[in-house]
Design goal:
Helix content: 40-55%
Number of helices: 11
Strand content: 5-15%
Strand order of the largest sheet: 2-1-3-4
Number of strands: 8
Amino acid sequence: MKTIGLLGGMSWESTTTYYQEINRETARRLGGLHSAPLLLHSVDFAEIEALQKSGDWERAGAILNEAAKGLVGAGAQLLVLCTNTMHKVAPRLQQGIAVPFLHIAHATADALLADGAVKIGLLGTKPTMQEDFYKQALWQRGIEVLLPTPWQMDEVHRVIFEELCRGVLAEDSRAFFLALIEELARQGAQGVVLGCTEIGLLVHQQSTAIPLFDTTRIHAHQAVELALQG
């Protein structure tokens, strides 16, 4: 099995889920006491979040590029960026990197099409919902994307940064997300993509009949699939 390099800490709350899901899936596939060979570089999210706010995506990408090079130098054979939003800088992150990089939106598109979902709702941070760097990967595969209203986007973004990234799971926020998921389904969504790696900490499939596509779990499981190949 290839060694997986995790670029995490954005936030560490969801990076914990990556570690758990990758090892659980490895054990499920290989049995016994098997676990995944992993390397982790966990950044200081306060620095990254400040660069997001200031719009200095070049600097943020450079930080992740250096971290990625460090992981490769330490033996990583496959790279996984444990966040949706920072895939905005995926091209910068991959500069000078020779090992495969598993893009979270590409993994998500695979999962959607495998389930026959070609019209979906997308929830995430404002950059993920409003900009094209993430949606483009879905559009290119023929997947239509439905979005919340502007004020709903503001609230989704607020909950992610003010609550979920800090480990706060509030019942009123859970109710808001579930109502929003129902609304997107009424608009024709065949499922809803939890396009922020923290959202899956708050809402779970057992709470709704609408299919949920948890990008953290999808990304982690596809990383195991690739690591086991060759």
